[in-house]
Amino acid sequence: MSHPQTFPRGLAPDYRGVAVGTTLGRRGKNLFTPRVFQTLSRPLHKATAVFGHAGGRLVVPNTGISLLVPHGGIAEDTTWEMYMSINQEDSSTVPEDGAEIFLSPAVTYGPPGLDLSCPVAMTIAHCAEVAADNWTIRLKRQIQDKWEEVMSVDEESTSCYCLLEAQRCHVLLEQPGRYALVGEALNQEAAKRLRLAVFGSPDLSNSLGFTLRVYCVDDTPYAFQEVVVGERSRGGRLLEEPKILLFKGNTFSLQVSIQDVPRLLWSIKPFTTCQEFSFSQVWASNRCPLQCAFSLERYSLSSSQLSCKISVRQVTGEEQILQIYTSVVENEKGAVPFFTQSDCTITSQTGSKAFKIPPSIRQRISATFDTANANGKDWQLLAQKLHIDRNLGYFACQESPSSVILSLWEAQHQDPGDLDSLASALEEIGKVQSPREAGALGCSNEDSELTRLG
């Protein structure tokens, strides 16, 4: 029960002028449906760079989206100004099949007419829980206003290659355009990952007021980045490390409630302690962040601390608790960083610094494995040792299968120590005796470089 005499003086305005926490309709006592907010102008995320014969990598910072242009893919004495962009306003039309939902942002790379001698490798973050076979996931390409299927990620294709991981999908592509991952739930156990975050800021119209904003968004870096951009513009603070909730395709709604508010120190507007998103709002939520707000008011300026819990649960499903303990006084902030690591600002790398494998070693590996020998040590064995064990017919159609396999490996392995896994695979095959010996590839000058990168 709220204090009978003191209530908040209204809900804080949204940073774009739309009232947050506005209820759309009552769903029983203390249960309301929050508004799903369509932002008026969403940020355009784009990266551009000029690439030549040496290739390179494009990265859209803090979005989980990148594009690898292989060494040698562009003809010598030729350059292309290439770009990648994410702009959901232009590309979030729901697929014609009503059973499908977007599992990733829509990503465009270009320019149109790009002429490369080998595929590029695009990495796209997705929010599907793929531990069990509960989804049919497809790569689609937007042609004018329609999304057309390129391939299903679990089928064979000679025109495209998809390697699906737990949180990312690596795609080998030859045609510029706009692409996205869409999914169709095969049963009610199919689940998508939601990232839950709570931000707070003082009510500028009320010195005693404080607003908590709870976001439930697809668990992709891009979706959370949109939230971060909006909160930074309004001075919001991340009050607890975000958590992940598995939201199942079972038609049940999502409830967000505030609990354990110190009633002797704070009041909250009645009938707003529990708010609800319908199943369809959450299941197809990629177009705009879902948020609801709780407006609180302290009884005295001397009350500078707020502690409470935010419960986010799917009815009959999983629940997560966000524990809030924060100072509401501006000069006593103890904010949680927006990212556990520093924000990425690098949008492109060109030439050898963009790759883990030095170009000369890459060329020797390709020359060694593209042609089968008497011992059966060829590009298929290389693919097997690098755990690329399906849709091998795609590589068989390439001019240099080994080179394309290495491009896929480069897209997968972006951490500094990952070169060891390639060296270990080569050692198993018997082409390199140890991670420190590149002599079998005839590249003694690169031995120290391989060791250092590994």
UniProtKB/TrEMBL annotation:
Topology versus the membrane: Single-pass membrane protein
GO biological process: axon guidance
Key word Hydrolase present: no
Keyword set, alphabetical order: Membrane, Transmembrane, Transmembrane helix
Listed InterPro entries: DEATH-like_dom_sf (IPR011029), Death_dom (IPR000488), UNC5A-D (IPR037936), UPA (IPR033772), ZU5_dom (IPR000906)
Keyword Membrane on entry: yes
Chief place of localization: membrane
Database matches in PROSITE patterns: ZU5
A Pfam family hit: ZU5
Gene Ontology CC: membrane
SUPFAM superfamilies named in the record: DEATH domain
Name by which UniProt lists this protein: Unc-5 netrin receptor Da
Organism in which the protein naturally occurs: Poecilia latipinna (sailfin molly)
